[in-house]
Design goal:
This protein is an alpha/beta fold. The protein contains 12 helices and 12 strands. It folds into 2 domains: about 150 residues, NAD(P)-binding Rossmann-like Domain (Rossmann fold); about 160 residues, Dihydrodipicolinate Reductase, domain 2 (2-Layer Sandwich), CATH 3.30.360. The structure holds NADP nicotinamide-adenine-dinucleotide phosphate.
């Protein structure tokens, strides 16, 4: 079986969850893709910092260039964040013929088109599913599933920290404590100002708008308002009226232009985006052929983000729809109810 030799940049919330996911699900990944993933080198900023996970010290370096220039590495997974030096790192990686997988929305919103072109010219993969919505499959909705559709509108909740804060405030928590809790759970951005001012959602909306409408839109063109001015009184008033405040990111095809913005909105409880709790994200898309689609799931946190990264990693070795696993003979247990049956679930998980 072939191997995928990985250079991992960053060992924070996302990087350490990726290292752990590869350790836990590496064999499963290998059986399904035909390639064994091996973390060959790991770059961090502070080499002596105590870590949640144990990594072979021989793999660690505080010089990312050594990882990028290592001819033995096939794929760079970038989980450091920020525009620079990440953009220079990933340009170098692609120019050296490595595949690149990133979770970095600030970088993708600004340099995504250029990096995709560079990857195409090198016949390499530049994959960024984890940059929007963590575990939610939202990038591929536009790059594969709806590629033949004309998208009319996107209405989304794409910041897990903001949704977490709003959910906690509905339970009586203060804004400051809810934000501190989001940070402690590894949901917030390294600079949480981006989460609460709406800039993080704007960067993600820029990415989705580029993909959905082929529009060269930048984060600076997206008017954004965050949740930093939302008070407990605003939350209570909305709840009393049977509504929930959610931070929306909206893009719509208009006559000859695209409307786009990020703003808090008070939604009726039966709206799909009003039902999102804590760090959940949701994406509602209207398009001419598919009609309405809705994707919902965990939109922040290292572990859900590692799910998208492993999916992207697989795309460097196998076509997205083609799992290589031979079908297994397995008993089928008849179900006649949607009630969860613990015994059945346990049997399936084994
Ligand atoms: N957290 C989430 O829920 C989430 C979800 C989706 C996407 N993302 C994205 O994932 C990325 C990482 O987020 P995070 O939450 O994991 O951040 P984090 O916990 O702050 O981790 C950042 C990591 O990058 C390392 N680093 C920073 N600059 C570096 C450099 N120049 N060279 C090598 N290593 C460097 C840091 O090293 P030290 O540990 O030594 O300081 C740290 O390990 C960001 O782009 C973020 O937007 C995060």
């Amino acid at each position: 079986m072939r191997t995928i030799r990985i250079g991992l940049l960053g060992l924070g919330n996302v990087g350490s969850a990726v290292a752990e996911a590869l350790r836990r699900n590496g064999n499963h990944f290998a059986v399904r893709t035909g390639a064994i993933p091996i973390v060959t080198r790991v770059a961090v900023k502070h080499i002596h910092k105590p870590r949640r996970i144990t990594v072979d010290p021989d793999l660690l370096t505080d010089d990312a260039w050594r990882v990028l220039r290592d001819p033995g590495i096939d794929v760079i997974i970038e989980a450091i964040g920020g525009v620079e030096p990440a953009a220079s790192y990933l340009t170098e990686a692609l120019a050296r013929g490595k595949h690149v997988v990133t979770a970095n929305k600030q970088l993708v919103s600004i340099h995504g088109a250029h990096l995709r072109d560079l990857a195409a010219s090198m016949d390499r993969v530049f994959a960024f599913e984890a940059s929007v919505g963590a575990a939610l499959p939202v990038i591929r909705v536009f790059t594969t599933h709806l590629v033949g559709d004309r998208v009319r509108s996107i209405t989304a909740v794409i910041n897990g920290t903001a949704n977490f804060i709003l959910s906690q405030m509905e339970l009586g928590q203060s804004f400051a404590r809810a934000l501190a809790e989001a940070q402690a759970r590894g949901l917030a951005e390294p600079d949480p100002a981006d989460d609460v001012t709406g800039r993080d959602s704007a960067a993600k909306l820029a990415i989705l708008t580029q993909l959905a409408f082929d529009a060269a839109v930048t984060v600076e063109q997206i008017v954004h308002q965050g949740i930093d001015a939302i008070t407990a009184a605003n939350i209570d008033r909305a709840l009393a009226a049977g509504r929930r405040i959610r931070l929306l990111a909206v893009a719509r095809r208009l006559n000859g232009s695209i409307g786009a913005g990020v703003f808090p909105a008070s939604l009726p409880l039966d709206h799909p985006l009003a039902r999102l709790d804590d760090e959940e994200n949701g994406l509602l898309v209207h398009s001419d052929l598919a009609g309405e689609l809705f994707v919902r799931g965990k939109g922040a946190g290292g572990v859900p983000t590692s799910s998208a990264i492993l999916g992207d990693l697989a795309s460097t070795v196998v076509a997205p729809t083609a799992s290589r696993r031979a079908l297994q003979k397995i008993d089928i247990v008849p179900l006649s109810t949607i009630e969860e049956d613990a015994a059945v679930v346990a049997e399936v998980e084994e």
